[in-house]
UniProtKB/TrEMBL annotation:
<dbReference type="InterPro" id="IPR003439">
    <property type="entry name" value="ABC_transporter-like_ATP-bd"/>
</dbReference>
<protein>
    <submittedName>
        <fullName>ATP-binding protein</fullName>
    </submittedName>
</protein>
<dbReference type="GO" id="GO:0016887">
    <property type="term" value="F:ATP hydrolysis activity"/>
</dbReference>
<dbReference type="InterPro" id="IPR050763">
    <property type="entry name" value="ABC_transporter_ATP-binding"/>
</dbReference>
<keyword id="KW-0547">Nucleotide-binding</keyword>
<feature type="domain" description="ABC transporter">
    <location>
        <begin position="2"/>
        <end position="229"/>
    </location>
</feature>
<dbReference type="Pfam" id="PF00005">
    <property type="entry name" value="ABC_tran"/>
</dbReference>
<keyword id="KW-0067">ATP-binding</keyword>
<keyword id="KW-0813">Transport</keyword>
<dbReference type="GO" id="GO:0005524">
    <property type="term" value="F:ATP binding"/>
</dbReference>
<dbReference type="InterPro" id="IPR027417">
    <property type="entry name" value="P-loop_NTPase"/>
</dbReference>
<dbReference type="InterPro" id="IPR017871">
    <property type="entry name" value="ABC_transporter-like_CS"/>
</dbReference>
<dbReference type="InterPro" id="IPR003593">
    <property type="entry name" value="AAA+_ATPase"/>
</dbReference>
Amino acid sequence: MFAVKDLSFTYPKNNEKTLKGISFEIQEGEIFGLLGPSGVGKSTTQKILIKLLENYQGEVTFKGKDLQCYGKEFYQEIGVGFEMPVHFSKLTAEENLTFFKKLYANNADCDELLKRVGLYADKDKQVGEFSKGMKARLNFVRALLNNPKVLILDEPTNGLDPKNARIIKDMIREFRQAGGTVILTTHLMNDVDELCNRVAFMANGVIAEIDSPKSLKLKHGQRVVEVEYIQDSAPVKQLFDLDSLKNNEEFIEIVKTKEIITIHSKETTLDDIFIKVTGVDTDE
Ligand SMILES: Nc1ncnc2c1ncn2[C@@H]1O[C@H](COP(=O)(O)OP(=O)(O)OP(=O)(O)O)[C@@H](O)[C@H]1O
């Protein structure tokens, strides 16, 4: 869908490049996570992909054609949900959606979407009276207004309680199942684990790692099993190599004869990988 090659970008007032030659491809029908520490250039990359920032170096193509060749028709296929929702606060939710709908040739069923995200009963309320989470849900509905083929989402579950976050994540998954492509930026590695087919970790203006979450976990994880058991009335922990487990006499003997407290394969998490490849903690 998108192919990005050697993309570099410097903001006019900055001396240093924000993007220092990044390359990646986003396949049709995948949920692609663009991850990395705050300020690394994720939103900048998204803004280039949606033609909000020009004057970049390198090549960006959409469906095989240079992005710069596209005019306004490009936006008919793209749904964008920025992190900071921009709505008309004096207008109601429905009036906001009606306004934005007029920009597009193709329209989704707004009532259905409002019902799905739990905002139908509030559709006649002024958006200025909405909570942060309600604005985030309305923002997501807005991204789907034109029945897009590509969704570009920046922190779509930010400010949402677990129930509403679940609804949005289900809708993102359903969008993909219906053939849509999603480019997702988030700091929530659990969301990434649940949703993304592939992820790119950005660090210092370049892409440090790009692969499926599963492959990254295998690559960065320890292939070991930790067994915790009772030995002489006290708990003991022991590590065993996962790949040779079935022939490991000592492991088999422990499982057969000891009281086992826990057994865990010591897979790494995306949080661990984030810290390892970007050098920054996800909480920072
Ligand atoms: N309009 C701008 N003018 C100058 N510098 C900018 C501008 N917008 C962003 N930057 C700088 O570019 C860098 C990358 O910003 P960007 O918003 O792309 O980061 P990000 O990875 O999306 O961060 P976050 O996770 O906090 O949203 C930062 O150093 C930021 O200060």
